[in-house]
Amino acid sequence: MTWLLDVAGDLAADCVERLTWQCRIAGNTQPGAGASSSGGLTGNTNETPGDPLPTSSTKLVGQAFEQNTNLIWSWLMDDEVSTIGIYGMGGVGKTTMMKHIHNKLLERPGISHCVYWVTVSQDFSIGRLQNHIAKCLGLDLSNEHDDLCRAVKLLKQLRKKQKWILILDDLWNTFELHEVGIPEPVDLKCCKLIMTSRSKRVCQWVDRRREIEVKPLLKSEAWNLFREKLGHDITLSPEVERIAMDIARECAGLPLGIITMAGSLRRVDDLHEWRNTLKKLKESKCRDMKDKVYCALFPEDHEIVRKELIDYLIDEGVIERMESRQEAVDEGHRY
């Protein structure tokens, strides 16, 4: 249970943290998404290659990363695979991996003329998704307020294009493709849909798909990443190194958590501060990762009963002991 219960105090923030929908298109002020071949594109001859998406300078680690990347790349080359689903817990590296694949696709325009990236928030709606896909396509839907009519225009525009890849990052729920205006990739040659989600179920709702789970780092891989982010030029005493290894282990193999914790400790040389950081982490009171890492005791899409969660918070000491059980329960409801 340990620090994973830290989510309880931040449930509200977790629901809205993904507060922007980003779509990176060719020629737009934001980096990223439309790549075109030198031979031109039917109905879209003005498209130019976009800039690569920004990625961390930290070298990606984990034996599974290269294997997963190679497998996804093989599916992109397979005409029999029209949809790819990538799932795994928050902070495990799904988006980072897809950014690298996206950038690699921009270097190989012969594979796909257009690569569109849309980040989908938890606060999903058909209208928002339509707007952001339309922005990728350079299509103006501002004067069209009916979702069905907007879907018709998106469908028509996407059917005009050849060899496109649409990446929907961080999906939380399923939806019908035709309601948005996304043609079934299976109906279009050389067009593909890629989805990332925390939920396996979300990645399984379309036909002719392949899915892959991105798993946490192994213990040794987690320590290597922690040490790299901390800085190999920094010398640790044996006692501090033991604490550092414990901190890396408490991050549960999540690259984002490891990078965040190591970065916060890069300039720390006081043994007491290292020890206190580990103590806070174990006591679920460390806030360094609260805005970036999402962890929970319950499976994805599991219905969480408020009373059950409050009992856990009290029993684990996240809610401190009060004069009466009722006071503690009331504090739980406030959380």
Automatic annotation (TrEMBL):
Chain segments carrying region Disordered: 31-54
GO biological process terms, semicolon-separated: defense response
Organism taxonomic ancestry: Eukaryota, Viridiplantae, Streptophyta, Embryophyta, Tracheophyta
Taxonomic superkingdom: Eukaryota
Biased composition (Polar residues): 43-54
GO molecular function: ADP binding; ATP binding
The protein, known as: Probable disease resistance protein At5g63020
Assigned keywords, A-Z: ATP-binding, Nucleotide-binding, Plant defense
Organism name: Populus euphratica (Euphrates poplar)
Domain NB-ARC: 66-231
Coiled-coil positions: none
Name of the encoding gene: LOC105107493
TM region positions: none
